[in-house]
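Good day; I would like, with your permission, to put a structural problem before you. A protein sequence and the structure tokens that stand for its backbone fold form the material at issue. The record follows directly beneath this note:
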Amino acid sequence: MRRDLLILGGAGGTLGLILLGLVLPNWLLFLGTITASHGLVSLGILLLMRGGVVSFGQGLPFAIGGYAAALAATRLGIGDALILTLLGGASAGLVAAAVAPLLARYSGIFFGMLTLALSMVLYGILVKWTALGGSDGFNMSRPSVLGMRMDGARGEYVLYAFTLAVTGIASCLVAVLIGSVRGLVTQAIQANGLRVEYLGTNARAVMATNFTLAGVLGGIGGALTVIALGHIEPTFAYWTQSGEFVFVAILAGPSSVPAIYVASLLLELVRSFSNLYFPNTWQMALGIFLLAVILFLPNGIGSLWTRRRKERSSEPADPIAARRSPAE
């Protein structure tokens, strides 16, 4: 029942946002596209956070997915956005699955620094690889979606709707996963991984699977971003890009999937307007914004509605009976 409600709610919300795009200006459509694609990458960090670890190298699958999609479009001539997106997710997922057994052995800061190191290794390779454009990267033309071109004003809306559809489906699946037995086991690993092992569950295998899924989400997000920008470069794997994804995950908190996209939208809005009005100090504006959220919402933006939902569920069905004394 709860799973069906999650799917219906996610489908309804996605459809509502797609219809809202019909009246939005092009610049806001592009902002929504980038918000959704980047939010999907941060959603992978949320999966890991629920297990007690944070990836500081989410730029690794983000860059792999982006380069895979761009190379498939320019070298193989693939012109369908859906195929390019799936290729990006699959490529990043394969790489993540290869390193997941190693990373699953670590926790805490060691996990975070190892993921960061892997991401920076990829960045160093891409910068020196002249066949892939070196530090400048290379361009790609926008593909089509089910035969519909994404050029001009109409193309911006088609890309927006396609990106929201992909992220909506992925987010519904992640929400169902979080509420499943595996999702609850992940939370138990965060509380006491050793006890989970004593109960007969391989905690390392669970965390390795979570990292692989985070890689798939990162690759899909990278492919969608490249399709929107029409350009790929090594900075996709740089540590500052990974830091932005962590920024969004911390801003949202680990308790809600929709909060990831709210936080991603807030980040893009704050960065855009800060860069417009305070071009030399926009990073400071982002830092102040994050500090304010940490001070007033230590559990993230998602705690605004998850806390209220928990409070409502804990209220007694009969308020009059609840006020009676035990003697009565």
